Amino acid sequence: MGSRVISSRQREILALIETEGVQYIDELARRYDLTTQTIRRDINALCDLGHARRFHGGVDVPVEGSNISLNARAQLNRRAKRQIAKRVAADIGPGATVFLGIGSTVQFVAEALRDHQGLRVITNNIHVALTLCESPSVEVHLTGGLLRHDDRDVVGTDVIKFVEKFYATYAVVGAGALSPLNGLMDFSYAEAQITNALLENAQTRVLAADVSKWTRHASVRVAPFNKITRFYTDRLPADAPVAGVLAESSMQVVTCGEETI
After folding, report:
1. Do 175 and 231 touch, CB atoms closer than 8 A?
2. Averaged over 207-234, what is the pLDDT?
3. What's the CA dihedral at 228, 230, 233, 239 to 10 degrees?
4. pLDDT at 131 over 50
5. pTM value?
6. Residues 91 and 184 in one domain
7. CA dihedral sign of residues 142, 85, 167, 147
8. Can you give the pLDDT at residue 54?
9. Are 233 and 255 in contact (CB under 8 A)?
């Protein structure tokens, strides 16, 4: 059921929920010049798929403190994620060893790496492995672990033990949320442990995350910004605390929202 195709308008509504928070039926109807009944059908479809949560008169993220499914995340801010992925891939040279971690933005990075030559990729992300399995010039190492069906990845101590056998040129990771105070945040302690293992065993530590991550709230600390070498994003929020924190951090910030894809 979660794999059902959603319409372009429903994808836009999901993106609005993700970037701006609560959306109201009356305002959405005016925005799209549609009846409230039509918008309500869109919202009902999204909620039935688990992508959003209804309340009287509007719609919000599913549940505070939990992430939405990978299918839903992949629909959100697709253009921004592809721009970020293209730029990340452009900075990864041939012959590199690359950790690709959990998340929808990382799967776009895998797509952008398909034509790279001589890469060795280590991942616990099933979608990444499937994306690269038809690229003969990319050697893919898929970790063992506990399969999470909705997220299409594997977690657990087996993943960490496998990762520690390598020292990668790059680790490319995403984040459930970004916090000016705490840095990278996630919804799952298991995910946070794996992301930390990738970062600890890589020379260049890459964070790939679009601007919407600054509006999300997750409860598990992953890593401070000073642990990241390079942060790729479509744009930065117009928020003085965020700008101050990033200016004080040691990581390089690469914005790529204006590039064509």
Report:
1. no
2. 92
3. 60
4. yes
5. 0.72
6. yes
7. negative
8. 81
9. yes
User: What is the C-alpha to C-alpha distance for residues 22 and 257, in angstroms, rounded to an integer?
Assistant: 24
For residue range 8-62, what is the model confidence (pLDDT) as tens digits?
888 888 877 766 667 889 999 999 999 999 999 999 888 877 777 787 788 876 6
Residue 57 sits in a domain of what CATH number? 1.10.10.10
| CA torsion, ordered 198, 204, 209, 214, to nearest 10 deg | 90
| pLDDT above 60 for 2 | no
Q: Which residues pair with 231 in a beta bridge?
A: 207, 253
* Separation CA 184–CA 191 (nearest Å): 12
Segment holding 211, helix H or strand E = none
The domain that holds 166 is classified in CATH as 3.40.50.1360
Inter-CA distances, 67 with 24, 88, 200, Å = 21, 24, 24
Distance CA 224, CA 221 (A): 8
As a whole number, the mean pLDDT across the chain is: 86
pLDDT at 259: 45
Length of the chain: 261
One-letter amino acid of 159: V
Structural domain includes residue 258: no
Closest of 19, 64, 61 to residue 187, by C-alpha: 64
Cα–Cα distance measured from residue 174 to residue 161, given in angstroms and rounded to the nearest whole number: 20
Look at the alpha carbons of 175, 177, 182, 187 in this order and tell me if their dihedral is positive or negative: negative
Range of the domain at 91: 71-253
Residues 134 and 246 in one domain: yes
Helical H segments across the chain, by residue range: 8-20, 25-32, 36-48, 70-75, 78-90, 104-112, 126-132, 157-163, 189-200, 240-248
CA 38 from centre of chain: 30
